[in-house]
Amino acid sequence: MYNMVTGSIVTYNNISTIAKTLETLFGETKDIDFKLYVLDNGSSDGTPEYIEKNYPDVTVIRSGKNVGFGAGHNIIINQVESKYHAVINPDIVLTQNAVKKMADYMDGNPEIGLLSPRICFPDGRDQILGKRNPHLKYLVASRLRGDEPSKLLKEYAMLDCDLSKPTEIENATGCFMFIRTDVLKSIGGFDDGFFMYFEDADLARRINEVSKCVYYPDAVVNHVWGRDSKRNFKLMLVHINSMLRYFRKWKTI
Fold it and tell me: N or C: which end of the chain has fewer CB within 10 A?
């Protein structure tokens, strides 16, 4: 079935956040043709069962094991038929009809392949996220960030630019991406070689080779940002491995 907008969420033990995500997602997409798919990576906390019981219109796919973020989304991307596709984290809260706003803006700007909305904390503060391509200096600055962003972090997040209007960007966060489906399919979706982390930067970079990535501040989504790799040693190693893969692939540091 062809849909105006499809969405994919990859879950792994996300029972603590998925209820709010789904509640706001369907509450904020009543004015647009929207179909949601969820790929569960072997959750043991009842996440897929909760979705199936409370949201029967959602297509739930069980991978049987943790295949990773990008590979999980690719399983869905390979089967959807839509004009636009939204990559959505299971800890996202939608506001102010964001999906329709992005679809309407993309309708009027066919040169754009990806829209990245304004990402905020639940209290309304902006999240300082990379919009330029990753470099080691930016990643060190991000790892060492304090209460106030450093000069390098501001540069990475393009805070030295006017972000009050739509702005072309190099890098987009994977917590919420709004992408033209034919562009997404033409580049083969995410690179499965990234288990988690940097797959979003890699995707944006490849989209920029065939289209444009644009930051769109008129659409706002809230993100419950855990920064798990700073607290979990295993995830930190995954993060480092993905970083090295990214730098090798793009021959940059």
Answer: N
